[in-house]
Amino acid sequence: MQNHRWLRTPAGTAPRISFGADYNPDQWPREVWDEDVRLMKAAGVDVVSVAIFSWAKLQPGPDTWDFDWLDELIDLLHANGIGVDLATATASPPPWLTTAHPEVLPVTADGTVLSQGGRQHWRPTSPVFREHALAIVTKLAERYGSHPGVVAWHVNNELGCHNAYDYSDDAARAFRVWLEERYGSIAGLNHAWGTAFWSQAYSAFDEILPPRVAAAFPNPTQQLDFLRFSSDALIDHLVAEREILNRISPDIPVTTNFMVVGETSHADFAKMAGEIDFVSNDHYVVEGRDELAFSAAITSGFARHRPWYLMEHSTSAVNWQPINRPKRPGELIRDSLTHVAHGADAVCYFQWRQSVAGAEKFHSAMVPHGGEDTRVFRDVVKLGGILQDLGDVVGSDRARADVAIVFDWESWRASELDSHPTEKLRYRREAFDWWTALTNAGIRVDVVPADTPLDGYRLAIAPVLYSAPTALRESLERYVEGGGHLVTTYFSGIVDENDHIWLGGYPGAFRDLLGVRVEEFRPLWEGEQVALSNGTTGTLWSEPVDVTAPDVEVLVRYEGEEELDAAVTRRPVGSGSAAYVSTRLGVEGIGALLPTLLDGAGVASELPEAIRGSVELVVREGANGRFEFLINRTDDEVDLGEGDYLCGSAILPARGVAVRRA
């Protein structure tokens, strides 16, 4: 996202936070459309995503096209002041295509061919699929590329959600091309993959396959490269569609919806963000409001803190969890405004009208099965009014914090490969624990990709930074020597970009910077704990840490452990410092350690002590000023004090959000 371009807006229209949903009118009789428009205007809707899953309707057969319904729909929406985020309709191919060309269907690692009948049943590397997909993209761009009602292009949908990892022969051929471009020679690949182990040396690229089901652990660097390749294949498809859209309709911005939520890691969204005009994200609550806010902060980092588009979330219950409960009063508005706090300038849902048939008929929508006389729709209308009152916030950036969590996609994927010291390590969970503990302490925190310059951050936390290429190691060293305060954790600095161990003892690449050395890891059994000198406990991991530099300070020690001594250390370096945490502290343990780390970095909470932990503070700033979003994390009222409130008031209700000028 080098040049941030936002939704097109009609001349003379006041800036606003856009509001809307995925709209699927092709599921409904024509007479429902006019009712939809009436209700959209009542709710303050100004944008809808259209045609996401309409390929079969737009192209009923190989040589048959039907655009009349879409012509009428876009004209209707435009006449009523509702912009169209027009999808390229390529997310799910129609049955006629997979029947005529079953070779487009994905293949699993064990050789199973996945059938049509669900969605996203296509191979990212299939030349046959690509040909047909780009044909419909071209048709749409030629027909609607100059329509004033189209405010953005929406490429595909949730790229890779169900088809990220394809092990077909198409994938094998494309993987070989990708590898040859990456390594240049088979000798370079053999070195990178360490193929001297287990007699795996290749004599030609044609011998290489994706890491299909094998008799033993597949080569770890092969696995890692396949993850990288699979992400790049999705990006390549995105770029192929984008290039057609840019050529035919250069004035319309292009986006695609990420899935920054929970453990979803199939695509490198930080890299994908560089290929679109503005970042979009789909988020559904999986672990409560803190995970929602953490994911929104990650999305803001991918957007480089520029405004982004919340493409999908839910008004209430979803349909795909084991048990699907509705949101409680206030949560619909709070969840939406939390995303706005973290930079979203568009708030949209899946979907506008709740379906009567299909796999998602029990998924909530802006207009539920019960119609407009429902709590959900009344809350939707209320939210629409609130968003219109926040016009001054539009276009502002999410303000930089003093603290950053470095979130590294490479380390996430590589640290959780098989044949490691423990299979229980979860990279995102460790990062989330640090984010939660900082929020509990009333500290604003950014979550940034690993290539983000850290200059200006007083404290940077890089949890489980397993993958440490030379450039990243040197960047962190410069940050510390320049006055930054770095914290990293167990299983950090272990390997280079090829998943080769940094020799000399752990934590490898950061051993000299931290002034510590570890000979062996000591992961903990499930349920096992180690006692720590500050009264907390560690889980998951422990290490016998040897202090190797005389200026290292031991902040926390292990207790009652014959083989273990230093648990948390800190070393002054230049005008900064580098700290090491050798066990999983969890939110409580991090909370006990934070005062020492924050004081050492000169970081303090901006919130009054009485409301720290109860309220999350997020700040946006732009041409119209600086705005504080105060989000109630509790089920109790909170007194915020007096201020110039754009939204809410000094008494913040349970699960409420207030916005005030700073």
Automatic annotation (TrEMBL):
The keyword Calcium does not apply. It catalyses: Hydrolysis of terminal non-reducing beta-D-galactose residues in beta-D-galactosides. Its EC number is 3.2.1.23. Pfam families: Glyco_hydro_42 (PF02449), Glyco_hydro_42M (PF08532). GO terms for molecular function: beta-galactosidase activity. Residues 22-389 form the Glycoside hydrolase family 42 N-terminal domain. InterPro entries: Beta_galactosidase_Trimer, Class_I_gatase-like, GH, Glyco_hydro_42, Glyco_hydro_42_N. The active site is at 158 (proton donor), 312 (nucleophile). Substrate binds at residues 119, 157, 320. One of its GO terms (cellular component) is beta-galactosidase complex. It comes from the Bacteria. Residues 401-603 form the Beta-galactosidase trimerisation domain. Keywords: Glycosidase, Hydrolase. One of its GO terms (biological process) is carbohydrate metabolic process. The keyword Hydrolase applies. Belongs to the glycosyl hydrolase 42 family. This is Beta-galactosidase. It comes from Candidatus Microbacterium stercoravium.
